[in-house]
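Problem 3 from the worked examples.
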Amino acid sequence: MKWAALVRRRPAPRWTARLSLAAGTAAAVVLLLFAGLQSVLLVGVGLAGLVIAAAGVWWALARTGPARALAVVLALGSPVAVVVLYAVSGLLWVALVSLALWVLAVLSGRTALAADRGPTGVRERAVASPRRPFLIMNPRSGGGKVGSFHLEEKAKDLGAQVVVLDPAHHQDVAALARQAADEGADLLGVAGGDGTQALVAGVAVERGLPFMVISAGTRNHFALDLGLDREDPSLCLNALTDGVELRIDLGYVGDRVFVNNASFGAYATVVQSPAYREDKARTALQLLPDLLTRHSGPRLTVHAQTADGEAVIEAPQAVLVSNNPYRTDDPAGLGRRERLDSGVLGVLGVKVDNAAQAAGMLRGRRSPGLVSLTAQDVVVAADAPSVPVGVDGEALVLRTPVHCRIEPRALRVRVPRHRPGVPPGRPAMNWRQVGRLARTMGRTAAGRRPH
């Protein structure tokens, strides 16, 4: 029966791969048939527009005053100029049709590769419901989701002990969690932002208790990667009565736990500014020029212990160390993490010194200005005794060198049995693999998977 089901499922990625090849061929045919030799110029002008726009964005971030204004005009005007040029030459429709076909080819190719890769995700196991769950709720988090979704009342109806934080007074959430554990709590949970989630998750690991996430924060990145419902946080409470358990990794920066990431360099420095919370965009635009041109901020050096030995990143402007690597199926590569139990840290280092290197960032993770790797341990050194660090969105200052590590499968997380889940990521486009997948008719019938 399993073999028969496999045979029934296999045609989908095969035919999607064939659609990708057909659309890619059609994109080239449209260019050559209707634009002829001008097709080369058509592609060149489009690429030049992208490069100029990327350079304009860099100058806009790294300059101030009139130079910034001119850079903004350049970044916005170059794509418009390309479209106008296509229209004047009568080739705009050719460019649009060819571009649409090319996008279809890439999307369908990546979809086929993802379907062929098979299921991914953290393995779950059935568990008994907790008897004495303890939940901490931040009423200000997420614009007041605790109150608007009646989380306190619903949790108490399910038998949970709930502590709602007092916005007028600072409370040590880790101390509250430890006290609850001492008094017999058999589950710790948080309805709040990722920074609060991380602090209580560390106590859960320390006391050997399961942890529960309620997606009542603003962005809920951790909940996103756990596959929880971010639209209605009250649905997360179903984990108390019909839950399963996941074993996931936990990151540490020094002695501080992080569930998502720790950032160093430009971003970490910007969030330290007292004005950042009041006006994020204005504060970033004021501070970034000096940070990007290295006129201010410490000079960083990253030492990462990878499976192939030590990798060194010299003088990056920004570094992101994540609890498991972020996947690469979005432009920035920072949308979701494919897994939370791979046992390795993700490391992204950005080093851009001029407009040409900024334009090279269009190549994504193949850009020479972007270093992407995985590591078991990461040490961030600097030419200063301490550096600003953003830990799950919280601004800290830590003494150098800063040591980041990962504890594999350290955290037991309770999640609802029925939840949205994490959609599978799509791997980077690989035309050779798509071609092999498109030719798998005979291999599928014989029960063999393509390599």
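Problem 4, a separate protein:
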Amino acid sequence: MRFLADCRSRLAFDLLANTWNPVVLWALKDGPLRHGELSRTIGGIRQKVLTETLRRLTGFGLVERTDAHYRLTALGESLIGPIAALGAWAFEHGDEVLLD
């Protein structure tokens, strides 16, 4: 399989390569949160970065804003499984990667 600039696999890799995209999606997996609640839940993210990330994820159709809350769309929910799998891999192999 070739990973051309416009291929769908590359799109998925680029989406998950942004540090905050999967973190914000994961934080929303249990239900809608307000901006401030998201910030406290995640920790270590600047307000500007969180706002930019939410705008980006909203633009991708993964998150929606309803009233003052952000929540996953069905498309966003479909990414929780792959994010969980990547997290499980990191938990199992993280020391190996960090030691090399």
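Solution to problem 4. The CA atoms of residues 35 and 51 lie 8 Å apart. The mean pLDDT is 91.
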